[in-house]
Write a sequence for this structure.
């Protein structure tokens, strides 16, 4: 079973070559799904590892061959904190944005703008990073802040899950944050 | 950074200098001399390294402590998650409690299939190695620093996220 967290550099290189050649796509997708879910709150070193693996995959150009939509499929559960950590290792100006259905969308984004100091710079403030969860449901607006390491974020409508029905990968050069849209449970299933 | 990473340091932490460099070289070489036991150990136990604010090379195993008594428990295999009730001491723990700034950090891992030297050095650290401004020459400088002590490693640079 492929485990992304333990691949040595040579193994990562081989995996990337296989993916580029059209092999092991489903294997990789399932491994990434496992990697992005945890039933516990990760410590800083583990989140560090998650970000590093994302950067490593990006360095090997994996996203040229893997459709994020296939990873973030509907009914696959992810840990918000893990997805957030993973997104921080993705290439600049890109983000996973998933629109579940018209009028029902939740965004998780990093607080701050590109004019502010990078809260993730290597000075230890990583743990104090905050995500903003904004529900853009047509009939109301919900906004809260939660520590980035929270495994799940709960809104009034239920537990937030990552889901995707019409995903797209959009460049967002004007903002620092990588945006992940998630679906409030009550509006989905 | 966890509170443990702020206050605790790995038991294996050392600075690279004229005394420790030959010892580190011997440790790394043990994976390449034909004995399989160290080769297996080294392939699952990465060495964390940090260049601190003063430019010194610090290195240690990634260790786990019991959070109830803050005592060292074991070095963490790459294949295992941190058990409940324990804390992993990542890169910040290699730095002094009063100064957690670093120029660069990453891992040193035995991977004989990667390059020429068996050991691979990377900037694989989300908090110090993959931050804005880090470039390949920075990692190359670390490789040269090690080479000054006779320690030859292969370079595995990961571009920072922006």
């Amino acid at each position: 079973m492929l485990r992304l967290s333990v691949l040595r550099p040579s193994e990562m290189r081989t995996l990337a070559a296989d993916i580029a050649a059209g092999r092991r796509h489903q294997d990789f997708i399932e491994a990434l799904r496992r990697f992005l879910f945890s039933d516990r709150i990760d410590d800083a070193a583990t989140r560090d590892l998650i970000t590093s693996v994302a950067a490593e995959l990006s360095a090997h150009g994996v996203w040229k061959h893997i459709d994020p939509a296939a990873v973030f499929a509907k009914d696959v559960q992810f840990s918000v904190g893990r997805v957030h950590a993973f997104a921080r290792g993705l290439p600049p100006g890109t983000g996973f944005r998933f629109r579940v259905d018209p009028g029902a969308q939740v965004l998780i984004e990093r607080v701050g703008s590109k004019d502010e100091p990078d809260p993730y710079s290597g000075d230890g403030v990583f743990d104090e990073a905050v995500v903003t969860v904004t529900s853009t449901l047509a009939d109301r607006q919900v906004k809260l802040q939660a520590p980035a390491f929270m495994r799940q974020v709960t809104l009034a409508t239920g537990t937030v899950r990552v889901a995707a029905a019409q995903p797209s990968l959009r460049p967002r050069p004007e903002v620092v944050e990588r945006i992940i849209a998630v679906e409030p449970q009550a509006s989905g299933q | 950074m966890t509170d443990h990473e702020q206050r605790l340091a790995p038991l294996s932490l050392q600075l690279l200098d004229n005394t420790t460099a030959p010892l580190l070289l011997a440790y790394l070489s043990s994976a390449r001399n034909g004995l399989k036991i160290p080769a297996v150990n080294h392939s699952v136990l990465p060495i964390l390294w940090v260049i601190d604010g003063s430019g010194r090379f610090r290195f240690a195993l990634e260790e786990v402590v019991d959070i109830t008594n803050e005592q060292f428990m074991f070095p963490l295999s790459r294949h295992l998650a941190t058990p409940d009730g324990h804390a992993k001491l990542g890169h910040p723990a290699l730095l002094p409690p009063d100064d957690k700034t670093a120029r660069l950090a990453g891992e040193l891992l035995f991977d004989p299939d990667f390059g020429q030297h068996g050991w691979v050095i990377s900037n694989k650290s989300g908090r110090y190695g993959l931050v804005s401004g880090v470039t390949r020459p920075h990692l190359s400088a670390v490789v040269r620093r090690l080479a000054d002590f006779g320690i030859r490693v292969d370079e595995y640079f990961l571009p920072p996220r922006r």
In short: The radius of gyration of chain B is 15 Å.
